[in-house]
């Protein structure tokens, strides 16, 4: 989807809810400790280690997760917004983890052993993830490898998750991921599925997700989701109305881009393709002539 700059940062608010964190880990992280987490006692750590250079393209979340056997594990979630992949991601993430450990040491000077930190990159860009997962892959193979930091992060790339898997999981996180991968014309049915799942959730989480959806639709969330309680029964109708408007806006933007590209490149084929799509949608020949500049004969022949 195109509209990423307007709603990506909503991810931080969404995954600040332990319910979504639990669904993210249990559905998309294949690690045995995930089933041992006491999510009722999980704590969100109110700090960030993103360097100023990257604050426009990423955000981070840190959760303190008590495990059933009495130990504690931290999870550092890096929310990656940019569409291009940073090849040096493992180096950047290693720095963030070291900064986090430094903060723990500063608050507890007598600390002798650091708690384990699980580094997770959540990527919802359009390009394929090509960066190495291990820091050692960034280091030249010369000398002894035993002295190279053995640091690896876990990656969840939304665009790599099979559509069938997202459909079958049927929880909030999988539905949010599914919405990101769908074409506009397929969105309405998924919104209905999301609303049916939301009926089981609490008001604050409903408000966060509804805000996120309205950002996707290019509209600010209405007053009802900023009040103390969200009226869930009103959400589907409002979303449905905005979906239709959004789909038309996307279509019109596509037409304009297609025409501009055809004119700039002098590519007659691009104009013919645009005309073919307009004709299939029932647009009159006169309107197609006005939009594309093609002749009546060319359009009738399509």
Plain-language structure description:
The chain has 302 residues and is an alpha/beta fold. The protein has 12 helices and 5 strands. A 5-stranded mixed beta sheet has the order 1-2-3-4-5, with no helix packed on it. The longest helix has 31 residues, at 235-265. It starts with a helix and ends with a helix. Mean pLDDT is 78; it is low at 1-7 and 219-233.
Provide a concise account of the structure shown:
The chain has 302 residues and is α/β, with parallel strands linked by helices. It is 46% helix and 11% strand.
Helix-strand blueprint:
Blueprint: H1 4-7, H2 10-14, H3 18-28, E1 43-45, E2 58-66, E3 72-80, H4 89-107, E4 117-123, E5 154-157, H5 163-169, H6 172-181, H7 187-198, H8 203-216, H9 235-265, H10 268-280, H11 285-292, H12 296-300
Parallel strand pairs: 3-4, 4-5
Antiparallel strand pairs: 1-2, 2-3
Radius of gyration, whole Å:
24 Å
Total number of beta strands: 5
H/E element order: HHHEEEHEEHHHHHHHH
Spatial arrangement of strands, main beta sheet: 1-2-3-4-5
Tally of alpha and pi helices: 12
Could you give a short account of the major beta sheet? 5 strands, mixed
Structural class by helix and strand composition: alpha/beta
Proportion of helical residues: 40-55%
Quick check: average pLDDT?
A: 78
User: What is the beta-strand fraction?
Assistant: 5-15%
Primary descriptors:
disordered N terminus; alpha/beta; 12 helices; 302 residues
């Amino acid at each position: 989807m195109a509209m990423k700059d307007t709603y990506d940062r909503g991810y931080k608010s969404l995954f600040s809810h332990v319910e979504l964190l639990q669904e993210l880990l249990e559905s998309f992280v294949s690690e045995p400790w995930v089933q041992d987490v006491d999510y009722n006692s999980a704590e969100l750590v109110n700090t960030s280690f993103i360097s100023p250079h990257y604050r426009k393209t990423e955000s981070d979340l840190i959760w303190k997760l008590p495990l059933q056997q009495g130990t504690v594990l931290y999870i550092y979630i890096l929310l990656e917004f940019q569409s291009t992949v940073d090849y040096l991601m493992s180096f950047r993430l290693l720095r963030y983890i070291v900064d986090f450990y430094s903060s723990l040491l500063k608050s507890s000077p007598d600390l002798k052993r650091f708690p384990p930190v699980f580094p997770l990159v959540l990527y919802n860009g359009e390009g394929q993830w090509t960066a190495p997962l291990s820091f050692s892959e960034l280091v030249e193979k010369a000398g002894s490898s035993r002295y190279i930091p053995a640091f690896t992060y876990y990656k969840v790339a939304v665009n790599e998750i099979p559509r069938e898997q997202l459909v079958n999981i049927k929880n909030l996180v999988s539905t949010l991921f599914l919405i990101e991968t769908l074409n506009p014309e397929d969105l309405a049915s998924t919104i209905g599925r999301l609303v049916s799942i939301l009926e089981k959730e609490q008001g604050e989480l409903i408000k966060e997700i509804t805000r996120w959806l309205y950002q996707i639709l290019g509209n600010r969330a209405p007053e009802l989701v900023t009040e103390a309680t969200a009226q869930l029964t009103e959400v589907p109708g409002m979303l449905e109305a905005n979906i239709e408007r959004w789909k038309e806006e996307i279509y019109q933007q596509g037409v304009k881009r297609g025409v501009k590209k055809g004119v700039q490149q002098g590519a007659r084929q691009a104009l013919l393709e645009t005309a073919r799509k307009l004709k299939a949608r029932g647009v009159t020949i006169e309107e197609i002539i006005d939009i594309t500049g093609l002749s009546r004969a060319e359009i009738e022949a399509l």
